[in-house]
Amino acid sequence: xxxxxxxxxxxxxxxxxxxxxxxxxxxxxxxxxxxxxxxxxxxxxxxxxxxxxxxxxxxxxxxxxxxxxxxxxxxxxxxxxxxxxxxxxxxxxxxxxxxxxxxx
Length: 104
Hints:
By secondary structure, the chain is mostly helical. It has a domain at 1-57 and 69-78: Non-ribosomal Peptide Synthetase Peptidyl Carrier Protein, Chain A. It has helices at residues 15-27, 34-40, 43-49, 72-79, 100-103; strands spanning 30-31, 51-52. Helix 1 packs across helix 2 (34-40).
């Protein structure tokens, strides 16, 4: 159970899930930006800055710099930084009889 004072990133949220949260909020009639999720972090504080759809305020210019706390994903990647390389992979199952030319 998530409380109104629980931190989004402390609960395992990351940049991708902040975009998903903003999208779901919009579908529910609220405007919450991923930036606000990063800045406000809790449900309680997000509720104080959320706007109703159609009442959005013009965005403020962002210089795109500054210190950002590491998310769980960033921490996991940072712990691997001492290694000489990074690779991301996935294994996919395919239907029996699938031919390579079908994929092209």
